Amino acid sequence: MIHVEGLTKYYGEHAAIRDLSFNIEKGEVIGFLGLNGAGKSTTLKVLGGAQPHEIRKRIGFLPDVPPLYDEMTVGGYLDFVARLRGVPAASARSHVIEAEKKTSLEAMDEQPISSLSHGYRQRVGVAQALVHKPKLLILDEPTGGLDPVQIVEMRNLIRQLKGEHTVLVSSHILSEISQVCDRLLVIQGGEIVAQGTEDELAKKLGGGGAVELDVRGSAQAALDALQKVEGVTGGQLLRLEGELASLRVDASPELRPALVKALVAANIDVLRVDKAHGRLENIFMKLTGGKAS
User: Fold this and answer.
1) 53 near 33, Cβ under 8 Å?
2) Tally: H helices and E strands in the chain
3) Which residues sit opposite 247 in a β-bridge?
4) Any residues with CB less than 8 A from the CB of 282 and at least 6 apart, and which?
5) What angle do CA 75, 79, 81 make, to 5 degrees?
6) Which of 38, 279, 247 is nearest to 178 (CA)?
7) Where are the beta strands (DSSP E) in the chain?
8) What CA–CA distance (Å, rounded) separates 123 from 146?
9) Domain span at residue 134?
10) Does a structural domain hold residue 291?
11) Number of domains in the chain
């Protein structure tokens, strides 16, 4: 478990973060949300720079600007980082190969970092955070500058790291946070204003969430079947194209298996079921006062 209590950081007389307290369970993936200037990066830098050296060996940190040396090759740089963080020389190369494989950098091993695109430089940043196999992995904007394919790859990587590592990830792409994180920490004005699962935060703010479904068959029959599921408080037709319909029901995403069973029992084909888009955005806006970053 990671236990943080009363964490405070001043820059001169300005408190960038004040009295932060939270727990992260072993193997969890935690999303860290906040507007620009809210204190996210300061918090991550404080945690990532923890002392003494034995503690730092257990932490992998990707700051918002990856700490790269342009004159080094990818493999040479990762080998250097691995040794710097206490990996024995005899094991360093195997650590590098594993980190490169996880971040899809195998083909770039001998490439100078100066020759890499922004997306590949970001991958090297993630690899350096992984190379010593830390217990806690802190990722500040890991998808920054990545193209859509690379974003999906990064999402899958974070999912694969779950359990093997405890992961604290900060991102402005709320849909990515929603898809990969177990719980959320929301910071505003240097203070934690909310923490919990997405469902828990939605309920605290007066809404239990929503689910979107694509079905084939009678839209009205589908809505009638869904309304009978305990926990569903409303529903609406979003789009209708022939026999294909997109529906939205007011219900916790945890009810998705029950919703699918109800539709199958009503002889309705289910083509897609997912959390309603924008739910996390609405939670975030409410918690941060509706201000734009």
Assistant:
1) no
2) 11, 12
3) 213, 237
4) 207
5) 120
6) 279
7) 2-11, 14-24, 29-33, 59-62, 136-140, 166-170, 183-188, 191-196, 210-216, 234-241, 244-250, 269-275
8) 9
9) 2-202
10) no
11) 2
Amino acid 292: pLDDT: 39
Q: 0.85 exceeded by the pTM?
A: no
How is residue 150 written in tokens?
């690379």
Binning pLDDT at 50, 70 and 90, where does residue 293 land?
very low
What is the pLDDT at residue 291? 46
One-letter identity of residue 180: V
Going from the C-alpha of 278 to that of each of 17, 42, 64, 198, 274, the distances in angstroms are: 28, 27, 25, 12, 12
How far is residue 73's CA from residue 239's CA, in Å, rounded to a whole number?
Answer: 52
Residue type, 164: E
Q: Sorting pLDDT into bands at 50, 70 and 90, what band is 72? A: very high
pLDDT-derived band at 279, boundaries 50, 70, 90: low
Question: What average pLDDT does this structure show over 161-173?
Answer: 86
CATH number, domain with residue 220: 3.30.70.1340
pLDDT band at 276 (very low <50, low <70, confident <90, very high): confident
CB-count burial class (<10 Å; 0-12, 13-18, 19+) for 57: middle
280 located within any domain: no
Residue 228 lies in a domain: yes
Residues 115 and 239 in one domain: no
CATH number of 16's domain: 3.40.50.300
249 beta partners: 211, 235
Is residue 286 situated within a structural domain? no
Residue 195, φ and ψ in degrees, nearest 5: -155, 150
